[in-house]
Write a structure and sequence with these properties.
The chain is mainly beta and 201 residues long. 6% of the residues lie in helices and 58% in strands. It contains one helix and 15 strands; from the N terminus they run E-E-E-E-E-E-E-E-E-H-E-E-E-E-E-E.
Length: 201
C-alpha cells in the first residue's frame, strides 16, 4: 500500500496499554461503488522492529454488506509476511500467503472477516448490529492469521446496548471487544480489546 494516501486520514486510533501510548493507526475510508475500502497504516512509537499495513473492501452482496477482499502486510525484523484474501462469487475464499495460493471453502452465504486490527471489530459490528438498541446476533466470522495465512471459522456474539457494542469472540475473553459509539451515529469513540484501550479520533 502506498502510505502517501494516508495523508489527511479520516480516522486515527491511539493504542494504549496500562496508560502507555504504544501505537498510532491511521485509517483512510474510500467509497467504492456500492461499498467501501478501508486502508490502515500502523506506526509504533517504540523502535520495535515491526510495522504493518492493512486494507480491505466491503460491498453489497445479495442485499447485505459483506467483505470482498483483504490485504495484510507485516514486518518483524527480517521476517516479512504478505497475505491476500479474495471472496469469490460462490463465497469461497482465495488465499495467497507469501506467494503460496490455496482455496478455502465456506458454508456461509455472507463472508465476515477478522484480522489483527481493532478496525475489523468496528466495521463488522456496524454491518451486523446497525442502530437498533438491544439487538443480539451470533454470526460466523473467518479469522485470518497474518503469520501463517491460515483461516479459522469462529462464531462471534454481538450485542448493542445504548452506545456500546460488545463482541464476544468465544475463544479467550482477553480477545473480546467493547466499542463505544459517538452519540447520534455509528462513528467509534472508544474501544477496549483485552488489556488494550483504543481512542478513536
Amino acid at each position: 500500500m502506498d502510505e502517501s494516501r494516508m495523508n489527511g486520514s479520516d480516522l486515527m486510533m491511539r493504542v494504549l496499554c496500562d496508560g502507555r501510548h504504544l501505537q498510532d493507526r491511521f485509517l483512510r475510508l474510500e467509497a467504492s461503488g456500492a461499498g467501501l475500502e478501508v486502508y490502515e497504516v500502523q506506526k509504533n512509537l517504540a523502535d520495535s522492529g515491526a510495522d504493518a499495513t492493512c486494507s480491505f473492501g466491503v460491498e453489497l452482496r445479495g442485499g447485505r454488506m459483506a467483505y470482498s477482499w483483504l490485504d495484510l502486510r507485516f514486518r518483524r525484523g527480517a521476517r516479512r509476511s504478505v497475505t491476500r484474501v479474495e471472496v469469490r462469487d460462490d463465497c469461497s475464499l482465495f488465499v495467497c500467503h507469501n506467494g503460496v495460493e490455496y482455496s478455502y471453502p465456506t458454508v456461509d452465504d455472507r463472508i465476515l472477516l477478522d484480522g489483527p486490527s481493532p478496525m475489523f471489530d468496528w466495521v463488522t459490528a456496524v454491518m451486523i448490529v446497525g442502530v437498533a438498541d438491544g439487538e443480539k446476533w451470533e454470526v460466523p466470522v473467518y479469522v485470518v492469521d497474518p503469520d501463517t495465512g491460515s483461516i479459522r471459522r469462529r462464531l462471534y456474539g454481538l450485542r448493542r446496548e445504548g452506545l456500546c457494542i460488545t463482541i464476544a469472540k468465544g475463544l479467550d475473553p482477553f480477545s473480546d471487544s467493547v466499542i463505544e459509539l459517538e452519540e447520534g451515529g455509528l462513528s467509534p469513540r472508544f474501544q477496549r480489546v483485552g488489556g488494550y484501550t483504543i481512542q478513536w479520533e
